[in-house]
Amino acid sequence: MSLGSWLRDHPRWLERAYQATNRLFARLHPLIKRLGYARADRWLRPSEDFSKRIIFDCRMCGQCILHSTGMTCPMTCPKNLRNGPCGGVRNNGHCEVKPEMKCVWVEAFERSRHMAIYGDEIMDLQPPVNRQLEGSSAWINMLTGVDKKPPAGWVSTSEIAVTNLIARNSSTSFEL
Fold first, then answer.
1. How would you write 48-83 as a 3-class SS string?
2. Is residue 168 classed as helix, strand or coil in its secondary structure?
3. DSSP secondary structure letter of residue 85
4. pTM for the structure as a whole
5. Fewest beta carbons within 10 Å, which of 40, 78, 82, 104?
6. 100 φ/ψ angles, rounded to the nearest 5 degrees
7. Are 125 and 83 in contact (CB under 8 A)?
8. How many whole angstroms from its chain centre is CA 62?
9. Which three-class secondary structure state does DSSP give residue 36?
10. Residue 153, by phi and psi: left (phi above 0), alpha (psi -120 to 50) or beta?
């Protein structure tokens, strides 16, 4: 078992590391803003890419939601789905596209149950990937807020009325 695999299977450690890193970037934000976001992106991107690729098999989408998906990168899904499984999950929990691979969303759900701080975010609706951000630093995109802004012509997830649907179906149990 690789270190990355072990860490992903113990998401509380990663959750704490994410929380500490998030706080660090919040404190460094004024300095990063003065240096310039583009310069900071060029400086940060290689180390972010290297570390996240080793631990999460990261695809550098520029809109990291690991903390909301059980510290499992949804971009490793062969269909790049960011809001749950496709419906083709096999009875054994494996992927319909790559039968030898466990479904990314089955792993994400299982891991999220072990996360005290962000575990419930697995139920949050995520915006589709903005392909224009691919290859850029997710941390810099978070600081600038560009990771939450939909591209021109897209509807923001806040405009999609799913909360009423969830409230009506609150008795529904979501188990894998």
1. HHHHHHHHHCCCCCCCCCHHHCCCCCHHHCCCCCCC
2. helix
3. -
4. 0.81
5. 78
6. -80, -10
7. yes
8. 10
9. coil
10. left
> Which stretches of the chain are DSSP H helices?
3-8, 11-35, 37-56, 104-112, 138-144, 163-168
167 has pLDDT over 60: no
User: Both tokens of residue 96?
Assistant: 């319909």
Name the nearest CA neighbour of 11 among 85, 153, 106, 119. Answer: 119
Coil vs helix vs strand at 89: coil
Q: How confident is the model at residue 174 (pLDDT cuts 50, 70, 90)?
A: very low
> What residues have CB less than 8 Å from 145, skipping those under 6 apart?
none
**With the CA atoms of 87, 173, 116 and 118 taken in that order, what torsion angle do they form, in degrees rounded to the nearest 10?**
50
CA distance 37 to 152: 22
Quote the Cα angle for 105-112-96, to 5°. 10
Q: Decide: residue 119, CB within 10 A, 0-12 exposed, 13-18 middle, 19+ buried.
A: buried
For the segment 10-15, the average pLDDT, to the nearest whole number, is 92
